[in-house]
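// run 5 | inverse folding | seed 20
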């Protein structure tokens, strides 16, 4: 069993007796625990907020030099921000706790990006989520790592969806922010796995907030066109709680937040949707800034009926031709405000969709507006922060402050006014926002002493007949011989928890046995396996998925597989279009020619907890039209890659960040087998040493390592895997993975 799973299994079992459902949810008045505030709609109930402010003058509190792309969140007297830390080879992602009165740093927690295509100037799109019940902080990294921290900044658990699910990350860097619902922390990412979840989809993944165990994974809609960062929203419509979110597949989707069951979908765009929704009654207001499914106009703002089921194909009202690409809307009674991609604020009538007025603010917009005390607080890409009083016929600009010229931008924008690409947070008479260079606080010199709750929702209890059987935990990564205990939970048709239930259990695809009370004991034979544990109760069935990781040593020549097969549980193997085939009488792993986006792929076949090991493999690629594939192996997040067309050997943990990449000239002949070997060692001082070599497979192994790098901020564990960019195809064979304790101190 992985270290994370074994460490927290006891906590899972202890937490299983708690109310396995939503609520109660209480958010103190003055707290801003998530990206869009306590109501998740960009509004605050606070009054007495500033109308105007000046840099280093009226209503200015402090400026802390920690720029970023994400919205601050606030709980009590602490402001939490997520941003980049360091530069070049020392660049990391970071969460910080700041004193709300002074901006002084209370603590910071840094973590690496790896096996990700997010470039250095787009790190830290997501905002942390704060749990009002525990005070814990939940983070989604640019590399799709979910991390839980306690209020003192100590790590509780982490889950690497970049490896466990081969998360699809892009140059855009767009990363969704977590949402907390009862005992769950819910995140979204474009991912692919194995078996029934082999395909790439923008999935919602719910984790137990105390343990990090996965409770459910759901995939509304079709294959994603892109990554996306639309803020999630939970609303109750006609008695049913719905998690509503736009995803990378161009649709807005509603699922039951405790089960993941898809309730409805509204396909709207030919690209990702990055704007959040707001809800009034049974109406859901959505928008996007890309190509519509019909017509030749870009952008849409619309109202749809949120009390439907299945696919929604019509709107209550809708207007095409206005591009709302990034900034989410806010509701003000019967008016809807939203800022378009060109930074013009628009007002619409929520009943008819009539366009009421508009107010130009700048020329580019990403930040979400916040509505509080009858005023809109919002910044622009051009570095201006506005306070606007909206009305029936127009908006009055009360304050417009242009920030200083950027000198230490998070985002490569030095020489212009500090950009503002994230929303503001309202807390106890103050307004907090982040620019490319700093975090700002304006408003009341003394924090307001507020009492009561901004949100006070009772616990939600199920009622009626069971309609859904959930088996927890799921998506487990296990070792041979592991023992795990599962439970079966019943929910009603509205997705409300009823009770835990005794079930009839069975295994499919896994060697071992399962007891009558749901305890699974796996065979201790070393092999790759993947399968399901099924439960049946009260006429319903549910299942938990698990893959079993082969421990070290691993020797894989693929001779035990038939052509067209794949090793079980290898993550992204099917979506990446790998297959077993025969080449010159030998059975090999092939990546056939593919000129689509799937010609470039990462594959993982171990646990993210694996550490201190060596990976050797044979690789081969043809030359077509003067183009040859890039092929390499990954160990502990470091990739050793032979680049064919450019004739290079590279060691790289994070491909777009080139300052930490080691590159050597290396010419390898097409249609010829070469051997690569990568060894990664954890050093006692927190550093990590990675060494690599490559040679023609027909030749003796060279004694010396060709690449030898000590990483001062190294990654201390990670799954073995592969990296290929192979439009014309490539082959791999003869994998040998050994623990470095077996390899020796300096092989």
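// decoded
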């Amino acid at each position: 069993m992985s270290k994370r799973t074994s460490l927290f299994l006891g906590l899972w079992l202890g937490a299983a007796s708690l109310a396995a459902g939503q609520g109660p949810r209480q958010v103190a008045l003055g707290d801003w625990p998530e990206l869009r505030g306590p109501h998740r709609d960009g509004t605050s109930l606070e009054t007495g907020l500033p109308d105007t402010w000046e840099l280093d003058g009226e209503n200015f509190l402090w400026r802390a030099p920690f720029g970023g792309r994400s919205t601050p969140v606030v709980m009590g007297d602490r402001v939490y921000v997520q941003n980049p830390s360091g530069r070049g080879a020392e660049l990391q992602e970071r969460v910080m706790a700041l004193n709300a009165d002074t901006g002084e740093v209370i603590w910071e927690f840094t973590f690496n990006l790896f096996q990700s295509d997010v470039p250095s100037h787009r790190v830290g799109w997501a905002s942390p989520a704060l749990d009002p019940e525990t005070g814990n902080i939940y983070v989604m990294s640019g590399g799709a790592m979910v991390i839980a921290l306690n209020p003192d900044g100590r790590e509780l658990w982490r889950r690497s969806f970049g490896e466990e699910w081969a998360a699809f990350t892009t140059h855009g860097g767009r990363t969704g922010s977590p949402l907390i619902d009862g005992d769950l922390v819910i995140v979204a990412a474009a991912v692919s796995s194995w078996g029934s979840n082999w395909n790439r989809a923008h999935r919602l993944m719910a984790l137990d907030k105390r343990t990090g165990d996965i409770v459910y994974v759901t995939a509304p809609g079709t294959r994603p066109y892109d990554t996306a960062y639309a803020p999630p929203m939970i609303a109750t419509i006609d008695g049913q709680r719905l998690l509503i979110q736009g995803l990378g597949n161009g649709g807005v989707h509603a699922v039951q937040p405790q089960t993941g069951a898809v309730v409805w979908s509204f396909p709207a765009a030919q690209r990702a949707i990055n704007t959040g929704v707001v809800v009034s009654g049974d109406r859901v207001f959505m928008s996007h800034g890309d190509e519509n499914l019909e017509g030749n106009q870009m952008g849409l703002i619309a109202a749809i009926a949120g009390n439907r089921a299945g696919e929604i194909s019509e709107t209550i009202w809708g207007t095409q031709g206005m591009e709302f690409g990034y900034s989410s809307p806010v509701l003000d009674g019967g008016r809807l405000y939203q800022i378009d991609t060109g930074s013009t604020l628009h007002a619409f009538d929520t009943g008819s969709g009539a366009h009421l007025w508009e107010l130009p603010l700048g020329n580019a917009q990403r930040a979400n507006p916040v509505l509080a005390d009858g005023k809109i607080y919002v910044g622009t890409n051009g570095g201006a922060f506005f306070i606007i009083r909206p009305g029936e016929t127009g908006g009055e600009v009360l304050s417009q402050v242009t920030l200083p010229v950027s000198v230490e931008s998070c985002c490569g924008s030095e020489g212009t006014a500090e950009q503002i690409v994230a929303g503001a947070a309202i807390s106890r008479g103050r307004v907090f926002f982040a620019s490319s260079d700093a975090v700002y606080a304006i408003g009341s010199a003394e924090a307001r002493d507020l009492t009561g709750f901004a949100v006070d929702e009772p616990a939600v209890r199920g009622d009626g007949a069971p309609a859904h059987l959930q088996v927890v935990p799921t998506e487990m990564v296990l070792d041979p011989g592991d023992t795990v205990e599962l439970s079966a939970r019943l929910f009603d048709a509205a997705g409300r928890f009823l009770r835990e239930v005794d079930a009839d259990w069975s295994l499919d695809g896994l060697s071992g046995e399962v007891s009558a009370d749901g305890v699974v004991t796996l065979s201790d034979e070393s092999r790759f396996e993947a399968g399901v544990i099924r439960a049946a109760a009260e006429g319903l069935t549910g299942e938990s998925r698990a893959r079993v990781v082969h421990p070290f040593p691993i020797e894989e020549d693929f001779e035990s597989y038939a052509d067209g097969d794949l090793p079980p549980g290898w993550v992204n193997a099917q979506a990446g279009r790998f297959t077993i085939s025969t080449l010159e009488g030998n059975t090999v792993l092939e990546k056939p020619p593919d000129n689509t986006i799937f010609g470039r792929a990462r594959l993982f076949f171990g646990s993210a907890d694996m550490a201190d090991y060596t990976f050797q493999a044979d690789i081969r690629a043809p030359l077509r039209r003067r183009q040859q594939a890039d092929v390499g192996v990954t160990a502990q997040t470091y990739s050793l890659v032979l680049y064919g067309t450019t004739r290079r050997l590279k060691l790289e943990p994070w491909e777009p960040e080139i300052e930490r990449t080691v590159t050597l000239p290396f010419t390898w002949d097409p249609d010829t087998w070469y051997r690569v070997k990568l060894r990664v060692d954890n050093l006692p001082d927190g550093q990590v040493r990675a060494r690599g070599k490559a040679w023609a497979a027909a030749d003796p192994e060279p004694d010396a390592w060709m690449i030898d790098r000590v990483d001062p901020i190294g990654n201390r564990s990670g799954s073995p895997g592969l990296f290929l960019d192979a439009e014309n195809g490539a082959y791999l064979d003869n994998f040998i993975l050994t623990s470095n304790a077996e390899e020796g101190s300096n092989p």
